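Quick start: load a record and inspect it. Here is 3-oxoacyl-[acyl-carrier-protein] synthase 2:
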Amino acid sequence: MHEMKRVVVTGMGAVTPLGNSVQETWQAARNGVSGIGPLTRFDCTNFSAKTAAEVKQFDLSNYMKVNDRHRMDRFAQYAVAASLMAVNDAEISIGKDVPYERVGVWFGTAIGGIESFEESCRSLQEGGYTNLYPFATTTVICNMASSQVSIALGAKGINACTVLSCASGANAIGDAFRAIQRGEADVMIAGGSEASLTPLGIGAFCAMGAISSNPDPKTACRPFDKQRDGLVMGEGAGALVLESLDSALKREARIYGEIVGYATVGDAYHITSPAPGGEGSVRAMELALQESKLAKKDIDYINAHGTSTVYNDKFETQALKTFLQEHAYCVPISSTKSMTGHMMGAAGAVEAIFSLLAIYTGIIPPTINLENADPDCDLDYVPNLAREKKVKTALSNALGFGGHNTSLIFQAI
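Running the structure step on this input writes:
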């Protein structure tokens, strides 16, 4: 059996409601700025949701030609742009520093090309199948983020797509990590993307009663707060360059951190509600910690799933208490969704970036809008203001409809 390779992160890219780069996004997050505003993508007069975390003033021409852009749904466009940023940030030349065949792509999405799907449905109803765009299929299917990234970069290694609801981005990173660990690739571009701020995307969450009906963008998303009334949907993408430690050292690359633990498990309980007490999340965290060979007291920061829904925040708090035991009240925890909104399949990837930047910069981003803590949510959620703290080890959690629970552990190197 081959010795498992160590895996590090050498590049990061992001398109988020907080900014059109990692730098802009991080600056806003550390300053507690919200990316949530009025929902402008369509007329939401008859929708209970009036707010969303939209990507703003993003210039695609920096990342792709017009013809290529027209053949991609928005979620794939975001994925390509974030991936190109990440590769540029890593200062890696694919084909020169590492063979094309040893570079893979693993991207996650929860919903895929829903905007293109809705457009195709309208075209079909208006003029039959001959009225459909020739690329109607390939703009909709979920694997197109990973495929378009692969084409844009010339990456000929593993090319895979993870669809695990809101855990998709985190799982894609974890699965890419495994591929390098096993020696199946030297470099992986991994992350998640989403662009589901559409009538169907938003309307379905309204019908479910999971989305905030608070019309005030500033206070609509308030994880762990007693007044929370649901999530706020966001969009965008996060991409990471994962690389074997050997490859990174050979290139003398800057290293943001090492991935030292990953686990994903199922609740086998309910399609939308977490299991009572968050028992699935507890098992994921335990397994990830076991792989890392660290102790619970070694965890310096946790980026929580923290959706601002009643059940998630309560059960996630219970899970963290069960997992950390007496250490639970000593660890700073934040929900960056308070600023980005819930980026669905992109959430886990962007939150992995936040976790790595907490390690790299020694700054923990806050949970904004936390004014009146729910008595059931009584841990240290870094309310409203970022905090300076040396972070060596960070844990990032992602949960998804269907009972998916994913944990990633990052460490300074």
